[in-house]
Amino acid sequence: MTTFAPLAAELPPNTVLSSITSDLADNHVAAPKGQDQENLAAIVAQARADGIPLSVVIVPGNPGHDSSLRDLATQVGEVTEGTVAVFSDDWIGTYSDTISRVRLEWAEDAAKYKGNRPEEAVQVFVDRLEQPEGTSWAVITIVLMTLAALTIAGLYVVKRRRGPETPAPVAAPRFDAGSPN
């Protein structure tokens, strides 16, 4: 019988973790040489001012698997604090020690497929994270359960009031043995 071990994290090609973490040190942005980091750094600085401890990594092109972006974000997140977003041309991978996976993926969905426009993708991602929490499903569930319980209680009261009253005794028919049908 064989057992399955988890696969090792696969980083995007030509990625060196130590150079990414050192590049993040100055402005929380790591991008390839020649990439303008000023606009990205401004978006990240604004997100940080708004309470989102964000670091952004830009990877050129698209790796073979989009999961390698999440692996990279996780490895960077293990040595930094907060939220790490790794962007390729069309995909995004994230890690956070402060934001739930559901909320991260909701923000990721809007930031994907922006082509080679990382500023736009990062801004969309940050905008989504800054939106207030949506509908609280716990509150909706509690309200629906309360309404169901009140409806059941109300129907019980109505049924008790309409219940059968004690019927008057019905006289049994009399049959005479000597009478013809």
Task: Describe this entry's structure for a reader.
The chain has a domain of 114 residues: Diaminopimelate Epimerase, Chain A, domain 1 (Roll), CATH 3.10.310.50. It contains six helices and four strands, in the order αβαβαββααα. It has a four-stranded mixed β-sheet, with helices on both faces. The radius of gyration is 33 Å and the shape is rod-shaped. The relative contact order is 0.10.
Distance between the first and last residues' Cα: 88 Å
From the 3D coordinates, which CATH architecture of the domain at 17-130 would you assign?
A: Roll
> How many strand units?
4
* Secondary-structure element series: HEHEHEEHHH
Biggest sheet layout: 4 strands, mixed
Overall CATH class of the domain at 17-130: Alpha Beta
Rounded mean pLDDT is 86
Shape: rod-shaped
